[in-house]
Design a protein that fits this description.
Length: about 260
């Protein structure tokens, strides 16, 4: 394991040039470098060698925002309160706008006061949800294939990943018969992502209904990571459209 070496500070009374070894936390032994971090480093290396690169990795936009968005950001910076700390729950106007978005696009009614929380990104949400609900050795159902961060954060908080396979033969949807054979004594949480990353499977309202019923039956927190509902998709869906979903489910979305 790597160690950080820190020299004695100049104000100490020691006259030696000894160095102090400070170990990283043991939890870091359970995680590896973020997948896209290593891949982007490989891409940069290939590009520096003059190789032609078409990057289909991380979903980073290659077009700048519209001029109207840029103008609004510039105007917001001139607000007399722009330099102050912001609300811990996000601006009320932002949360109301998000509630309107869910109502207009998914026909889902959300209370902007206590059912919406703006984040810096889904990784932050994945971490906070895991910290809030998982204890050491709790088990988490994670799709395979799926977003690597589910596993990284599960390991980081001391919980245990339990992978459920998604197969092309079943349109990349969970095999509920196989899931029902699990021991649910320690299963606390289940990650899903529809439209699915990386296969692109869209899922369906029927699938969401099965998942909510499954989570309700086994008292599992169900989280749908839903950043792709408008990508090449004319029928966007939300897990929260299902009756009873709010009792057992959370959903991450993307701006």
């Amino acid at each position: 394991m790597k160690r950080t070496n820190i020299q004695n500070r100049p104000e100490t009374t020691s006259t030696s040039n000894s160095r102090v070894d400070i170990n990283f936390a043991k939890r870091l032994e359970t995680i590896e470098e973020y997948y896209f971090s290593s891949k982007l480093r490989e891409v940069r290396q290939l590009a520096s060698e003059g190789k032609p690169i078409i990057n289909v990795g991380i979903g980073s936009p290659d077009l700048k925002p519209s001029q109207a968005v840029i103008d609004a950001l510039v105007l917001a910076m001139q607000d007399e309160n722009a330099h102050q700390y912001q609300s811990y729950q996000g601006l009320p106007e932002l949360r109301s706008g998000m509630a309107d978005f869910y109502q207009n696009n998914y026909r889902v009614s959300l209370n902007p006061v206590n059912e919406i929380l703006p984040l810096m990104g889904s990784k932050e949400g994945i971490m906070y949800i895991s910290l809030a609900f998982l204890n050491k050795d709790d088990q988490v159902l994670i799709p395979n294939p799926g977003y690597p961060t589910y596993t990284s954060v599960t390991n980081l908080v001391g919980a245990v990943p339990v992978y459920y396979d998604l197969k092309e033969a079943t349109n990349w949807e969970p095999d509920f018969e196989a899931l029902e054979k699990l021991d649910f004594l320690k299963v606390k949480m289940m990650w899903i992502s529809y439209p699915h990353m990386p296969t692109g499977a869209r899922g369906s309202l029927e699938l969401f209904e099965k998942l909510v019923a499954f989570a309700t039956k086994h008292s599992i927190l169900l989280i749908n990571d839903n950043p792709y509902s408008f990508v090449l998709n004319d029928k966007p869906m939300s897990l929260l459209q299902v009756e009873g979903a709010k009792e057992v489910a959370l959903e991450l979305n993307s701006l």
